[in-house]
Amino acid sequence: MSVTLKDIARKTNLSVTTVSLVLNKKPCRVSENTRDLILKTAEEMNYYPNQLAVGLVKQQTNTVGLIIPDISNHFYSNLALGIDAEMNSHNKNIILLNTDFDAGKLVRGINVLKSRGVDAIILTAASLSPKNLSLYSDLIRSVSVPVITVDHYYPELNCSAVQLNNRKGAYIAVKHLINYGHTDIACITGPKHSTVTLERLEGYRLAMKEAGLPLPEKYMFCGNYRQEGGAKAAEEILQSTKATAIFSFNDVMAMGACQTLKKHSISIPDDISIVGFDNIDFSGMLAVPLTTVNQPAYEIGQEAARQALQEIAHPGVEKRTITFEPHLIIRDSTKARAAVKD
Amino acid sequence: MSVTLKDIARKTNLSVTTVSLVLNKKPCRVSENTRDLILKTAEEMNYYPNQLAVGLVKQQTNTVGLIIPDISNHFYSNLALGIDAEMNSHNKNIILLNTDFDAGKLVRGINVLKSRGVDAIILTAASLSPKNLSLYSDLIRSVSVPVITVDHYYPELNCSAVQLNNRKGAYIAVKHLINYGHTDIACITGPKHSTVTLERLEGYRLAMKEAGLPLPEKYMFCGNYRQEGGAKAAEEILQSTKATAIFSFNDVMAMGACQTLKKHSISIPDDISIVGFDNIDFSGMLAVPLTTVNQPAYEIGQEAARQALQEIAHPGVEKRTITFEPHLIIRDSTKARAAVKD
DNA sequence: GTGAAAGCGCTAACAC
DNA sequence: GTGTTAGCGCTTTCAC
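Structure tokens for the assembled complex are given below, as produced in the milestone run.
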């Protein structure tokens, strides 16, 4: 058993109150002598306050909940790193929940965090069917602490959000392909109901439309933001389209797609150009360095953490939507289309 | 404020005790009627027990502390994923602490976790100077809950450990280079005091010695398990050695080294062979797919979590050291040495 | 079958 | 300056 306030009180022949007062550096009226005594014995006994008890009475735990779909995904782990760094410098810790992209786990996770009395919840990448959305929305509303959504945005949620301008990101990616003369541009999306997916889809559509290019449904392939999803989608693209370019909604799926293309001995970028999204660390070190849309995960995490800290410190403070602007990083996986074959 | 037992008791005109009994499915004597009533109203009011209060009285929080040097490193994030998956299926959550490879943060972290009443601590990759080691050792001993060390092993700690056979891993990596005819083999290590580093160094030394090769100190370069450390070490290798092969103590540093070599227009594997350690997801997708020693991060995490769960459930249970055996994955970054130049 | 009361370790209002 | 007391939300012993 750990050493408690009571132990120190007993040892020093003082009351628990006095000890608590001193140890919490309360601006108070305790004599130098007793203060020193208490400080010294606390040190000697290696006292650390029981945070469960503190949390219970203060209704504040210095704990923040972080819900993430897949911590092994580089984008999310960097996001988590940024959040942890910021929280850590404010003496707050993180409870990490990995949902595996499972909406059920997400919902359970929120309840778990509530019951653990976290001071705020940072929520990433929920992908919800319309049916789940209202459930989710009610749930979020029932959380009495600040909720910050990252990487997804539903206006009805009425909480602060940190996100990338996904629409623009997709737009510049596709525009880049169009500028290179591509007209048959397939895309590998994420799950249909994810707002990130929807926003990127909008950007893709906008760029195509502006260029007067057709938008055949059959050029859009539904992935899952995971490598094998990208690999599978690429197979389908090869079978059912004559695309000369692929826009993958994230880098990890782009890598999966690269593997498929390699398997079929299709050259990137000579036969097919490919552009990703996220700019994860390794995208520049691939066999063919990947052209991609930069998304500053660490900074997004930091900003989300800062907003959470703000809302914890000043409960009434205004909700904000913080949007990061993307930029394109052109590497070797995209190339001007050779010549119009027909 | 959340709904409490008291709220339910009031609503149902029953006592807090009865409500608690029912909600905890205690094998008890409550009439069907009251039981149903309680269950129903709890459901209606969306009751979730306050885990702080539960933890305080039960001295068990269903929380496990995880201390990791760098969650953005693929090896550690996969480790975390394995741990989380296993814990999650036992209704336990994780408090994640990122130390940034900083021994001070590690020590503070352990105290933080203690004061939060975690049921166990899983501790990865501590790299400690002899001076810090005794401090650390005392600290670990002062923790009254199970501690599982992962990816580092100090016999004096007297707690369960899960690890890779690092010595063998390094041995087979270097042996592979030797079999390919290399004799000038540089290595990029981790921080000096890390036991993982020491063990891999032993394996390196053993393989060299067995082959009757010299072991010049100046062929060993101290890295930090990070990309830029690998890049820097490779610069030094180029300047001060005539190595034809590099054994990097992890993949991330190997990638840094690859970048340096590329910058200097040195071909891998034609001019220099390179072998890494970890087999992180991307190592097979690099410009030159990396030969590396496989380390099953997810499984190691799972196993660590299982051992933690065992020790939580059965406090007296025997401590164990679980060792995973490595194997070499040969890809394109290593090649037989062309010809002896002299 | 059900409830009262004590106590987990702490903070904070109030008394002295 | 210092101590008493109540209470945070829960479990658990014991009494009825």
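Residues 14-18, 21, 28-31, 34, 53, 55-59 of chain B lie near DNA strand C (CB under 10 Å from a C1'). Chain B touches chain A through 51 residues (CB under 8 Å). Further analysis is deferred to the final report.
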